[in-house]
């Protein structure tokens, strides 16, 4: 009988852990959905940059956010659009994703 009670206790603990993880996953999913809806809302690029630096950072609970755009030449029209926007030279994103490693072609890169 003690063996069965012990097993039942372990099963109940496992059940509680699974339920807690499910609620945590739902909360994370809802947070991402709110963030995506905020990204779809701005009517212009400057408004999107404002959203990135304000509301979206708060929703995702992060301190800093950057939008990195690659440009093969200087882009004076993009200068002064806010602190969240960074202009990088062409190839910067590929170098950043590779992290100094030689990567074979992949359809998806997980970070």
Walk me through the structure.
With 111 residues, the chain is mostly helical. It folds into two domains: 1-64; 66-111, no CATH class. The chain is 55% helix and 9% strand. It is built from four helices and two strands. It has a two-stranded parallel sheet with strand order 1-2. The longest helix has 39 residues, at 2-40. InterPro entries: GAF-like_dom_sf. It comes from Xanthomonas perforans. This is DUF484 domain-containing protein.
The average pLDDT value, as a whole number, equals 85
| Estimated share of beta-strand residues | 5-15%
Structural class: mainly alpha
Terminal residue distance: 49 Å
Number of helical elements: 4
Overall 3D shape: elongated
From the alpha-carbon coordinates, what is the Rg to the nearest angstrom?
A: 22 Å
The largest β sheet comes out as: 2 strands, parallel
Q: List how many beta strands DSSP finds.
A: 2
- Strand order, largest beta sheet: 1-2
Order of helices and strands: HHHEEH
Which residues sit in consecutive blocks of at least 5 with pLDDT less than 50?
none
Number of domains: 2
**Range of helix content:** 40-55%
Protein name: DUF484 domain-containing protein
InterPro entries: GAF-like_dom_sf
Organism: Xanthomonas perforans
